[in-house]
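FAQ: What does a multi-protein file look like?

Like this. Sequence, then tokens, then the next protein.
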Amino acid sequence: MNSSKTRGSSHSSLETVFNIVLLGKAGTGKSASANTILAAENTHRSILPTLITGNSHQDSNTQFKSYPSSTPVTTMCEVKMMKVGAQFAVVDTPDFFYEEDCVQEGQLEQCKKYCQPGQCVVLLVIQLGRFTDGERGILENLEKLLGWKIRDSTIVLFTHGEDLHCDVEEFIGERSHLKHIVEACGNRYHVFKNTSKDSNQAMALIKKFPNFFPKFTSKHSSSQCCLS
């Protein structure tokens, strides 16, 4: 992916950084899912300092802001570093299609810095049982905004898996709109139970990366063993 020196940290040497970029509509659980991913480091310990770049937000907190709200909580790109064998930049993004408050063009440009072909894994976050009209065509619309075929690097991340009362494959198969998105992304998907504090579900996601993107991870063989 990309090499980055984390400012303000004790890691002075350049390390391979795997970018995990979460995209999707407001209210789907992007920030909560990002926090679930960060929690995977708990067993390996030590969150690295938040990455400081351009106008992206950084602070000393180890989690992204996430709470119920009638308006988007995340209004700018936020990046936090973690290390689970390999080093990861977890990127939380605003809803680029929120109609009542146009997202600044600068935020889209910040997102593009992390979301580049061959440099990231994209998590398209969709809440199970809450697919809205605004999410129809979301994959194609995001590709237009970002300027490349993100589906080739995307895993569909379904949230609120605790609300699912049937097999996830059955659930997807019975809903053509979800089936279209999953198939467009090479049938790559994962389910998070957002009320669960079990970080193993995040580790299970991370361990899928080499299988889902073998060419991608083979470029970074030194870190691949940490993901398998």
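And here is the next protein:
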Amino acid sequence: MTKTVLLLMFLIFIFSVDAEDKSTRYRMPTCGVLSLTQACPLNYDPVCGSDGITYVNECALCVHRLQTNTDILIMKDGRC
């Protein structure tokens, strides 16, 4: 009986760790009020999007979010 309870507790722990919300690890880009015709600055400050694409800067990620109507988050600063 004790082994069964321990095994059950272990499995619950493993599944809860695996099901961790990804949004706590990623951050929302700061897009503000952005339009599709807005030009982004030309500075190279890469960010890695949750879609696996490296964007030249946060503004470029925001424009892509607008164009594709997708919810892309920033996984990390820098290249993917």
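Q: Is there any per-entry metadata?
A: Some entries carry free-text notes. For the entry above: Helices lie at 2-18, 58-68.
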